[in-house]
Amino acid sequence: MGAARGGILKPDLAGWLRTTFDRAPTDQGPFDRALTHGSQAAANYERLEFLGDRVLGLVVAEWLFERFPAEPEGALSRRLNALVTGAVCAQVARDLGVVPFLRLGKQARDDGAHDSDNVLGDVMEALIGAFYLDAGLDAVRGFIRKAWAEKIEAHAQAPKHPKSALQEWAAAHNRRPPEYEVIDRSGPNHAPRFTVKVVIGKLADATAEGTSKQEAETAAAAALLEKLGN
Amino acid sequence: MGAARGGILKPDLAGWLRTTFDRAPTDQGPFDRALTHGSQAAANYERLEFLGDRVLGLVVAEWLFERFPAEPEGALSRRLNALVTGAVCAQVARDLGVVPFLRLGKQARDDGAHDSDNVLGDVMEALIGAFYLDAGLDAVRGFIRKAWAEKIEAHAQAPKHPKSALQEWAAAHNRRPPEYEVIDRSGPNHAPRFTVKVVIGKLADATAEGTSKQEAETAAAAALLEKLGN
Fold it and tell me: What's the rounded mean pLDDT across residues B195-207?
């Protein structure tokens, strides 16, 4: 539904907000800002995205905590990370019909920002931030659980740990199992940095850093999986 | 205050919880679990820490959003990261007198886990998770704002960005300014990985990865600052 104003058919933002969030905002200002890219105005979505990112993190964490009472912390973390990526947030934004309401500068429009996962993902988080400020945690919890409902059920199992996934990839492709080696350790004892290299025979390798050997190995496995097209 | 039981003077957990959280818990179970290290029992603090980490993140993010209305997202993120490190959470735990209530296995006790920033930081987040489940967001917001009050006011300015801090370090030590170079780019277009090397003349270098050039440069600057003892 559009309303003609000054000869241009403008999409009806107030109506869309009312439908999407199941109530009219007390103050539409933060929602306007959540839809505004830095290329369009200094009053853009960045601060609201900072807030909304943490709102989404808590609501999804609490939901996973309830929904998967037998899973250890590592499995919950991997589920959470998979549910709050920019690509998933962007998909939710598209499904909700955010695109016509984006406020982009000319350059960003020309660069295709209206279809960028980065921009749409950030806008989705900023809208969550705006709704949290407007209506509080209970309302935003209801909104997120509805918008993410299919996504949380999509995986019967928690996503695999990168090291397990790499191990399975190697076995499935008749390759030698991954080997990990710490190639550098720096930083003071209370804040060490490890650099780990992972190789699959002579096929491929990747290197990554972390604050523990385990973290660096995980990052290296993820980097190698990405190189291998996974 | 202790109560003698079976000849051993046990610290009074129920009394400590009442004083610390300003109310008696509806169910003490999650608090027991939040104080329990993995070396002591399978029912340990790890899942509650997963939840509490996000509760703390939201409460601090919202507080910074209000308290520093003119700061851009980058400055708020740096403040947040500085306020929720393991070391800061551990300090809050010590200040609140958590240590006598820790439940550690023998090996962890012998390894000094009662004074480990990692363990105490995790326990602090787990206690926040337990209190959130017990009393909700408003109560936990009040608790965190009191426990972190001095810490949020301690920095008149947001912590410096690692690239600015490295630039200033080089100038203060009469060294050449840091130079950044992308030495590797991998991954598909929609999920690139950049490896950046930063050097200060011939003095020192560090390498790090990120999902953007800017992120990899920031991580490399942080790694080099750490090598230089900052």
Answer: 92
Q: Residue B93 corresponds to which tokens in the numbers above?
A: 């735990």
Which pLDDT score, from 0 to 100, does residue B171 have?
Answer: 86
B49 is in an annotated binding site: yes
Regarding whether B115 and B196 lie in a shared domain, the answer is no
Measure A1 CA to nearest chain B CA, in Å: 34
B117 annotated active-site? no
Of the candidates A98, A130, A153, which is a domain's last residue? Answer: A153
Of the residues B103, B125, B153, the one at which a domain ends:
B153
- The answer to whether position B1 is within a domain reads no
pLDDT tens per residue, range A76-130: 999 999 999 999 999 999 999 999 999 999 888 888 888 999 999 999 999 999 9
How far CA A178 is from CA of A23, A196, A219, in Å, comes to 53, 12, 13
Q: Which residue, among B37, B45, B47, B195, would best test binding to A if mutated, counting the most A CBs under 10 Å from its CB?
A: B47
Q: What is the pLDDT of residues A11-65, one digit of tens each?
A: 899 999 999 999 999 999 999 999 999 888 889 999 999 999 999 999 999 999 9
Backbone φ and ψ of A160, nearest 5°: -70, 150
pLDDT score at B3 = 45
Same domain, A125 and A189: no
Instruction: State whether residue B165 sits within 8 Å of chain A by CB.
Output: no
Which of B81, B59, B58, B227 shows the shortest CA–CA distance to B161? B81
Q: What is the CATH number of the domain that holds A28?
A: 1.10.1520.10
A145 within a domain of the structure (yes/no): yes
Spatial separation of the C-alpha atoms in residues A89 and A122, rounded to whole Å: 8
- B16 with B64, same domain: the answer is yes
Is residue B146 located within the same domain as residue B168?
no
Q: Do A226 and B137 touch (CB under 8 A)?
A: no
Does B77 reside within a domain? yes
**Measured at the alpha carbon of residue A193, what is the angle toward residues A190 and A219, in degrees to the nearest 5?**
130
* Chain B residues in contact with A117 (beta carbon < 8 A): 190
**Which CATH number fits the domain that encloses residue A185?**
3.30.160.20
Indicate if B53 belongs to the active site.
yes
Sort out which chain B residues have CB atoms less than 8 A from A188's CB and list them. Answer: 226, 229
Domain tally, chain B: 2
B163-193: b or e for each residue (b if 16 or more CB lie within 10 Å)? bebbbebbeeeeeeebebeeeeeeeeeeeeb
Beta-carbon contacts below 8 Å between A and B: 87
pLDDT attached to residue A4: 44
- pLDDT for B82-115, tens place per residue? 999 999 999 999 999 999 999 999 888 888 888 9
Task: State yes or no: pLDDT of B22 exceeds 60.
Answer: yes
Q: Residue A223 belongs to what domain range?
A: 162-227
Q: Report ipTM for this prediction.
A: 0.75
